[in-house]
Write a structure and sequence with these properties.
The two termini are 18 Å apart. The protein contains six helices and ten strands. The protein has two domains: 113 residues, no CATH class; 84 residues, no CATH class. Helix content is 30%, strand content 14%. The longest helix is centred in the N-terminal third of the chain and has 18 residues. The chain has a two-stranded antiparallel sheet. It has a two-stranded antiparallel sheet with strand order 2-3. The protein is an alpha+beta fold and 207 residues long. Helix 1 runs parallel beside helix 5. This is DDE-1 domain-containing protein.
Length: 207
C-alpha cells in the first residue's frame, strides 16, 4: 500500500529537511504477517514528517492539507475530550493502567489528590451546569445515587454539548493547525473533488 502527500507543483514531495533526504511517500505492507492494519497513528506519523518537508520546499507558505472522510482521518487523539470515554463518578487514575486511556491537561482532577479524575458528575458540578440542565433528566445531585444506564447517557449528552467537548479536533487537524497550516475534509459522496482520483486517472493513461 502506498500513502503519500502531493502538492500541485511538485507532485510527490522530495527534498532535504536539514541534512536528511525525505519523501512524502510511505510504502506500507498490510496484513497480519507484515505490518498489520494502516491506522490513524501511521497517518499522524507520516503527516508529522510531511509538514517539515513541505516547509522546506515552500518556505513561508501556508498549505491546505486535504483529506477524505476516512475514519482514520477523523480519529481523535488519545487524550481527546470525549465524554463517552469518561467515568460517571470519581475514579483513581493509575499510570500503569493502560485501559483507562490518557487525560489531557485540564481541571478535571481533584485538587488535593491529583490522581483522582472527578468524573462527569464532578465536571458538571464544577461548571455549575449540573443543577440547571441535568435536573431536566431527573439526575440526582449525588452520582452515587444514579443507577440507570439512561441517566449516564444523559450526562454524556450534556457534556458533549459543552464548547470544549463539542469543538474537539481530530488528531490530524491538531497536527496540521498546530504547525500553522490549514486542515480540510473533502465533502462526502463527491469523489470527483478528490485529488487522488485525478492522480489515478493520469496513472491509468500511462499504464
Amino acid at each position: 500500500m502506498i500513502s503519500e502527500f502531493q502538492c500541485p507543483c511538485h507532485g510527490t514531495m522530495r527534498g532535504y529537511v536539514g541534512d536528511q533526504y525525505k519523501t512524502s511517500r510511505v510504502i506500507f505492507y498490510p496484513g497480519a504477517q507484515y505490518e498489520g492494519n494502516w491506522k490513524s497513528s501511521h497517518m499522524c506519523a507520516q503527516l508529522a514528517d510531511g509538514i517539515p518537508l513541505f516547509n522546506a520546499i515552500h518556505p513561508n507558505a501556508v498549505a491546505v492539507f486535504l483529506f477524505d472522510q476516512s475514519s482514520n482521518h477523523k480519529a481523535y487523539p488519545e487524550d481527546a475530550l470525549l465524554a463517552q470515554n469518561m467515568n460517571l463518578c470519581a475514579i483513581e487514575v493509575k499510570d500503569s493502567d493502560s485501559g483507562q486511556g490518557k487525560f489531557c491537561d485540564s481541571s478535571f482532577y481533584n485538587k488535593k489528590y491529583r490522581k483522582y479524575f472527578i468524573g462527569l458528575c464532578g465536571i458538571l458540578q464544577q461548571r455549575s451546569i449540573y443543577r440547571n440542565e441535568a435536573e431536566r433528566y431527573s439526575l440526582k445531585r449525588s452520582c452515587n445515587n444514579v443507577a440507570t444506564a439512561d441517566s449516564r447517557s444523559y450526562t454524556i449528552h450534556i457534556m458533549e454539548r459543552q464548547p470544549d467537548f463539542a469543538n474537539q479536533k481530530s488528531a490530524l487537524e491538531e497536527i496540521v493547525e498546530g504547525s500553522g497550516h490549514k486542515f480540510e475534509l473533502y465533502p462526502k459522496y463527491h469523489c470527483e473533488c478528490n485529488w487522488i482520483e485525478r492522480y489515478w486517472g493520469a496513472a491509468k493513461k500511462e499504464a
